[in-house]
Design goal:
Blueprint (H helix, E strand, L loop, with lengths): L2 H5 L3 H24 L6 H29 L1
Helix pairs in contact: 2-3
């Protein structure tokens, strides 16, 4: 997922999307321990998507905090 797509989401949508990504990452980690994954690079992509999502979420929080202080 691209950062520009994440920035277009509202805070609630972003939190929901992060929960979905984390759940998928968890399921893939479990599958990896039991069997070989068809696409092992998907783990890396998911970790990076979660990190991007968290970064954008912090940006949302900072912007809302700055607007309250101004």
């Amino acid at each position: 997922m691209k950062v520009s797509e994440l920035r277009e989401l509202t805070r609630e949508e972003l939190i929901r999307r992060l929960a979905e990504l984390r759940a998928e990452l968890f399921k893939l980690r479990l599958r990896r321990s039991a069997e070989q994954l068809p696409n092992p690079l998907r783990l890396r992509m998911l970790r990076r998507d979660v990190a991007r999502g968290l970064t954008v979420l912090k940006e949302h929080d900072r912007r809302s905090g700055e607007q309250k202080n101004a």
